[in-house]
Amino acid sequence: GDMGKGLINSNTRKTVKIEKDVLKKIERALAKEGDVLLSCRGTNGKTAIVESNHHGSLVSSQIMILRTTDKILPEYLIATLNSQLVQRQILGLLRGTAQQYFTINELKKIVISLPPLDEQHKIVSEFIKLKQEIAKLESTLIEKRVKFESLIKK
User: Fold this and answer.
1) Which of 98, 106, 113, 131 gives 20 to 30 Å between its CA and that of 123?
2) HSE (CB half, 13 Å, CA atoms) of 71?
3) Which phi and psi angles does 65 have, rounded to 5°?
4) Which residues contact 82 (CB under 8 A, 6 or more apart)?
């Protein structure tokens, strides 16, 4: 499926049956629930968390699978990767001309802060609240633009 707004869009997902011997060779490219996906070729820097309904999906080579440890919450990693600070760093890593990309070795150069888990939980909670507020404001903005356009047409 396509990635956007931190989620995977299942409507565009294609399924293919894979034989067991081939499956063993590609296990590294299979998504696990809680994995963080990061696009690294083409539309660089898009992120998503793998939810249970996508566990076992084969991930494109254009996307990195970032497996978190017990020291970092996937939601915190997503928030950090989506921050302007990290997105600017990702832009600085890009190579190529026609289709820009970056590698895992280049990604390792990015420095992020790693607060204790309890603080990560607080940051994620605040991040979710702010995203909801932004969504409401964007909705209101759309409504106001529609209203403005209707006034102009009269």
Assistant:
1) 106
2) 3
3) -100, 120
4) 6, 47
Position 54, amino acid: H
Report whether 1 contacts 29 (CB < 8 A). no
By the 10 Å C-beta count (0-12 exposed, 13-18 middle, 19+ buried), 75 is classed as buried
17 or 111: which leads in pLDDT: 111
* Nearest CA among 95, 5, 107, 110 for reference residue 47: 5
- What's the pLDDT tens digit per position in 61-119? 889 899 999 999 999 999 999 999 998 988 888 888 888 888 888 888 888 899 999 99
Residues in the chain: 154
Structure tokens at 103: 């590698």
pTM, two decimal places: 0.73
Helical H runs in the chain?
20-25, 74-81, 84-93, 104-107, 117-153
d(CA 80, CA 123): 10
φ, ψ (nearest 5 deg) of residue 12: -105, 5
